[in-house]
Amino acid sequence: MMKAVWNGKIIAESNKTLNVENNQYFPPESVNREFLVPVNAHTVCPWKGTASYYNIVVAGETNIEAAWYYPKPKEMAQKIKDYVAFWKGVQIIKE
Predict the structure, then answer these.
(1) pLDDT, tens digit, 9 for 90 and up, residues 68-85
(2) Does CATH number 2.170.150.40 belong to domain 2-94?
(3) What ranges do the domains of the chain cover?
(4) What 3-state class would DSSP assign to 80?
(5) Burial, 45: exposed, middle or buried (Cβ in 10 Å; 0-12, 13-18, 19+)?
(6) Which end of the chain is more exposed for a tag (fewer CB within 10 A), N or C?
């Protein structure tokens, strides 16, 4: 079981994460959406495509653009479509 934890809350939890480039991508249904706020931020990966970002908001604190996903990934990255990955201090814990 993998968990993504920030500010004392479990943001995502799954035993079906995918490891891509040393990042754990959590299935969309395993993410607690109550903590995610979509933002108008994007980056481009040459082989995965354009990533979209979320702010994580817990107990009134915001971790800016700390989660990302690929809504329309390129062909080679189709398996992570809509899966969510984390950074910027979000702890990924294996249990």
Answers:
(1) 999 999 999 999 999 999
(2) yes
(3) 2-94
(4) helix
(5) middle
(6) C
